[in-house]
Amino acid sequence: MSSSPSLDPEIVDAVHLLLRNSHGQRSVGGDRPPFFTAVAAVKIANALADASSTIRAVVSERMAHHFHMFEPSLSPSVSSTARMWIPRDDDAHWEAETYFLETFRAGDITRQDLLDQIDAFDRYSPTDAQSMKVDARIPAISVLPPSALYGPDCFPLWMASTTLICRVGMPNPNLKFLHLRFSADSTLLARVVQIVSASCAVRDVVVEVDHPRAHPQDTDVPILHLSKLALAGQEYAELERFVFRAPGVDVRVGDDAPFARRVTQCTTFVLAVRSMHLTTPRR
Predict the structure, then answer these.
(1) Does 130 map to a domain?
(2) Does residue 36 lie within any of the structural domains?
(3) Which residues constitute the domain of residue 127?
(4) Measured on CA atoms in the order 91, 93, 96, 99, is the torsion positive or negative?
(5) d(CA 35, CA 12)
(6) Among residues 255, 254, 230, which one has the least CA distance to residue 242?
(7) pLDDT of residue 5
(8) 43, 41, 45, 48: which is closest to 21 by C-alpha?
(9) Distance CA 33, CA 21 (A)
(10) Comparing C-alpha atoms, which of 193, 209, 206 is closest to residue 242?
(11) Regions in the chain scoring below 50 on pLDDT
(12) Does the residue 196 lie in any domain?
């Protein structure tokens, strides 16, 4: 039985670089920044892995420890143009698109992008990953009319997004860094809250929530209760960064002592949301 020939170290390094830094760039027109995605890089790596057991080992090791489905945008871009900090629900759809594009360097994704990320998760089983970046947004949610958000045509999109987030939610005691993108929906938000509250070792959390141009009803606006991001009596690593950018989500602040202890040492704490309400705890 013949063994696969060993690869030149430079080739192995190139595969690492591909997974770490390669961005599938797509021009979005005019002077807008390009759309970056790691999904294209992962698909290229998959093809290389199928051709060589050595590359397969390199790709598997990298993806199992650092499951990154988009790059980069660890911090928002800086714009010299005066504009609203976050778009409102009643803004034109292009306001939401521009916000996500300019702030996160993220353009629209497709249903195939969601499916590719699910396939990558199933292929590499990153259940012990130290870092995850996953984009589970619903494609084109900012341009859909409210009546179509939960219609039959959108059902496959919601299913793909939910499936991807559920994959991320598999128990992982080693997770240190979590960067999630998803669309404003109460069910999806509840699942993400469960993921954050169950990730006891995580030190860096970035959540970016796309939103529809209008919620079907005001009662459909997702609500984040900060108190649910930490469980009473649970030991947590102290967060160094917590960023929650969600123009279509309301936040409730109440008796949040466990969460407050979790963010005591934060050097970056951001809440950019639709509205924030302070509730007085009952005595």
Answers:
(1) yes
(2) no
(3) 79-278
(4) negative
(5) 27
(6) 230
(7) 45
(8) 41
(9) 17
(10) 206
(11) 1-5, 7, 22-36, 73-74, 76-80, 82
(12) yes
> What's residue 247's pLDDT?
84
Of 92, 84, 73, 85, the residue nearest 33 (C-alpha) = 73
Which pLDDT belongs to residue 19? 59
In sequence order, the β-bridge partners of residue 209 are 182
User: What CA dihedral angle connects 169, 96, 244 and 66, to 10 degrees?
Assistant: 50
Instruction: Say how many residues make up the chain.
Output: 283
Tokens of 222: 């997702």
Instruction: For residues 248 and 250, give the distance between their C-alpha atoms in angstroms, rounded to a whole number.
Output: 7
The DSSP symbol for 31 reads T
User: Which structure tokens are listed for 79?
Assistant: 């714009």
**pTM of this prediction?**
0.80
Task: Tell me whether residue 237 is exposed, middle or buried, using C-beta atoms within 10 angstroms of its C-beta: 0 to 12, 13 to 18, 19 or more.
Answer: middle
- The whole-angstrom separation of Cα 50 and Cα 91 is 47
Q: What is the pLDDT of residue 12?
A: 58
Give CA–CA dist 108/210, Å, rounded. 10
How much is the pLDDT for 34? Answer: 38
Q: How far is CA 244 from CA 49, 155, 256, in A?
A: 36, 26, 16
At 50, which amino acid appears?
Answer: D
The C-alpha atoms of residue 107 and residue 28 are separated, in whole angstroms, by: 8
How many domains, in total, are found in the chain? 1
Residue 52, pLDDT score: 74
Task: Examine residue 210 and state whether it is found in any structural domain, yes or no.
Answer: yes
Please tell me the distance from the alpha carbon of residue 170 to that of residue 54, in angstroms, as a whole number: 28
The three-class DSSP label of residue 245 is: strand
pLDDT digits (tens, 9 = 90+) for 128-169: 999 999 999 988 776 777 778 778 888 999 999 999 999 999
Token pair 């299913």 is found at 159
Tokens standing for 84?
A: 């609203």
d(CA 88, CA 274): 7
